[in-house]
Amino acid sequence: DTGVSQDPRHKITKRGQNVTFRCDPISEHNRLYWYRQTLGQGPEFLTYFQNEAQLEKSRLLSDRFSAERPKGSFSTLEIQRTEQGDSAMYLCASSRGLVGTEAFFGQGTRLTVV
Amino acid sequence: AQTVTQSQPEMSVQEAETVTLSCTYDTSESDYYLFWYKQPPSRQMILVIRQEAYKQQNATENRFSVNFQKAAKSFSLKISDSQLGDAAMYFCAYRSPYSGGGADGLTFGKGTHLIIQP
Question: Which of helix, strand or coil describes residue A48?
Fold first, then answer.
């Protein structure tokens, strides 16, 4: 499968624990995005990478959140000291070429904080 | 900041009939991109159709077409000959042509849940 893959698909964690999610974009895509989607809402933009550079961070991305994309390939999103409000679906998307081209989404990681 | 509004939380249509999903947006930009994405249950979001604001011609993709009214800031999706596989959440999204300063990434509406009645 050559689409965007995310791991794990589901994560249940206790409040206060740290969690890390991984995203593998389509191999030739230089742009990578993270979104958060809560129940009944559309996805909300969190952060954006162009190659290995993190160029944009939403104000939704608190200090407890950090994202990396070493070598411009896969990306990780870490949440430290998780809170119940962090429970959501975390989506990764990738694209290439000019701004406004199609973004391809992964199936997401569903995080439940108990 | 741009906003996207989908005023129909849920729509229902008989199989083989036509349904229109509405979307309005607010922006001060003159050039931008608009998208409709489909999110089936437990599956990834996929692009249905894309419109560039500078193009007056409405985009079409097989049974899917849009009615893009730039002055009214309206971007509705028409699905003709509805099929059971069309059942999903549909999200309207906006993308600025710029980068940086909060412009990166898509701005989504809250979605419309489309039900297809057999």
Answer: strand
Contact criterion met (CB < 8 Å) for A45 and B42:
no
- In this structure, the strands spanning A31-37 and A10-13 are unpaired
DSSP code, position B57: S
Give the closest of A42, A55, A108 to B104, CB-based.
A55
> What is the rounded radius of gyration, in angstroms, for the C-alpha atoms of chain A?
13
Q: Tell me whether the omega of the peptide bond preceding residue A25 falls within 30 degrees of 0, making it cis.
A: no
| Spatial separation of the C-alpha atoms in residues A65 and B29, rounded to whole Å | 30
Largest CA distance in chain B: 47
* Strand locations in chain B (E): 3-5, 10-14, 19-21, 24-26, 33-39, 46-52, 60-61, 64-69, 74-79, 88-95, 107-108, 112-117
Of residues A46, A55, A106, nearest to B44 (C-beta): A106
B64 touches chain A (CB under 8 A): no
pLDDT at A101: 84
Q: Tell me the pLDDT tens digit for each residue of B9-53.
A: 999 999 999 999 999 999 999 999 999 999 998 889 999 999 999
Does A1 have pLDDT greater than 60? Answer: no
Please indicate if any CB of chain A lies within 8 Å of the CB of B47: yes
Min CA distance, B97 vs chain A (Å)? 6
- Is B38 in CB contact (< 8 Å) with chain A? no
